[in-house]
Specification:
The protein is of the alpha+beta class and 131 residues long. The chain is built from 3 helices and 5 strands. Helices cover 47% and strands 18% of the residues.
């Protein structure tokens, strides 16, 4: 199903998307930090969750909750720019873009230095084509 222009917060030119990459790299660094902290704490949660009804989750549960909230904030910072985080681990980002009268995604995958690819909305990473 083709999505129209109105379905996106904004459309990026290639130049605008490339200019936003330093901020996106900063945001992705924060995402990775928070994601890793949550993964480190996750194995310790099972006994805490089992006892949570009686003690509220304790220190580790609270720390995990703080990390989860901070991860949400880091992802939200990306989303507020109108960019789509497609993969939490690889940092794959899509930027809505107008190409030949339709909306497509400019696709950036770290450690690429600039945006060099695009794909149809429903094609995803495997459907990337050079600009």
């Amino acid at each position: 199903m083709e999505q129209g222009f109105e379905n996106f917060k904004r459309l990026f030119s290639v130049r605008e998307a490339n200019e936003l990459l330093p901020l996106m790299e900063e945001c992705l660094g924060e995402v990775a930090t928070r994601r890793d902290a949550m993964r480190e704490k996750a194995p310790h949660l099972e006994p805490i969750l089992a006892a949570a009804g009686a003690n509220g989750g304790g220190k580790v549960g609270s720390e995990y909750g703080v990390e989860a909230y901070n991860l949400y904030l880091a992802i939200e910072r990306i989303r507020e720019e109108g960019v789509y985080l497609k993969d939490l681990d690889s940092g794959l980002l899509d930027f809505p873009h107008e190409r030949e009268g339709r909306v497509v995604f400019l696709c950036w995958h770290p450690p690429e230095e600039e945006i060099l690819y695009w794909h149809e909305l429903d094609a995803g990473y495997p459907g990337r084509k050079p600009l």
